[in-house]
Amino acid sequence: MTPRHIVVAMNPRASFGKNEDAGHEVARVLASAGHDVIALREEDYRALENATRDALRPESVLVVVGGDGMVHMGVHLAREKNVPLGLVPAGTGNDLARHLGLPLGSISLATQHLLRALEGAPQRIDLGVATSLQGVEHPFACVFSAGFDALVNERANKLRFPRGRHRYTLALLIELAKLRPITYTLTIDGVEETGSYLLVAVANSQSFGGGMKVTPDASLVDGKLDVFTLDPLSRLAFLRIYPRVFKGLHVTDRRVHIRRATQVRVASEGIVAYADGERLEALPLEVSVEPSRLAVFA
């Protein structure tokens, strides 16, 4: 095995604090295997991002320990610094890890999986990039969302109580009571259309939200994005179709539409977009794919 320079960035609040020591465990195992390891932990997300950026060298491998929020940070820095990425899933969502087939629920197994991957070459996967009118780029690995799910995230971020997962449950109930279609203008590979939808997502991978297979046939290596839209539904119909998303069975419903594209402009008044569960900015945003852009040890 060739020793590698590895920067381990850890989220002490991964899985709402249940995996507080996961990052140190990963760093210890990697160092014991002979790698040159820098372990970084900050209570503030922005401070961690800055410290990680400063620690990365051209020959580094960035390993993130946490959930989709940490992956989102890792993807951004790996793309910026042009270094490969390694993942140890320790959060609640873990959607990129899920698509890549990494072990879930065991830090030890995921770390051993990473060690084996580090013995070979990384694989290359596509990245999505959401770009604002001002040219600000937001790379993402999994799903860009700008519909009901984005409204739930935005509501949850405004709530001060309760804490943890229950905050999102309350946000879901609040937004469900206000459920209404939203008018969008979508430009899909140059073809513009206007319509009313409950959900609009542009996916690079299969799932978001901890295994919701919104685009079950999406590929990380096809150079395409899957554009998902859901026609207006009643609350009862929405609650009926919602559980089917976790197995990808919702795609048989005639009100679900999925198209493949390489460039999608999403515009709507007053909607803030999210990607990989992280807040981006208000629409309009241009979403494109960068084929084989990210090297991943998985």
List the helices and strands and how they pair.
Elements: E1 5-10, H1 22-32, E2 36-41, H2 45-55, E3 60-66, H3 68-81, E4 85-89, H4 95-100, H5 107-118, E5 123-131, E6 137-140, E7 143-145, H6 148-158, H7 165-177, E8 182-188, E9 191-197, E10 199-203, E11 225-230, H8 235-241, E12 256-261, E13 263-267, E14 272-275, E15 278-282, E16 285-297
Parallel strand pairs: 1-2, 1-3, 3-4, 4-16
Antiparallel strand pairs: 5-6, 5-16, 7-10, 7-14, 8-9, 8-13, 10-11, 11-12, 13-16, 14-15
Summary keywords:
298 residues; 29% helix; ten-stranded mixed beta sheet; six-stranded antiparallel beta sheet; alpha+beta
Task: Explain this structure.
This protein is of the alpha+beta class and 298 residues long. The chain is 29% helix and 33% strand. It has helices spanning 22-32, 45-55, 68-81, 95-100, 107-118, 148-158, 165-177, 235-241; strands at 5-10, 36-41, 60-66, 85-89, 123-131, 137-140, 143-145, 182-188, 191-197, 199-203, 225-230, 256-261, 263-267, 272-275, 278-282, 285-297. Strands 1, 2, 3, 4, 5, 6, 8, 9, 13 and 16 form a ten-stranded mixed sheet that branches. A six-stranded antiparallel sheet has the order 12-11-10-7-14-15. Helix 1 packs parallel to helix 5 and helix 6 (148-158) crosses helix 7. The longest helix is centred in the first third of the chain and has 14 residues, at 68-81. It is globular and about 55 Å long. The mean pLDDT is 91.
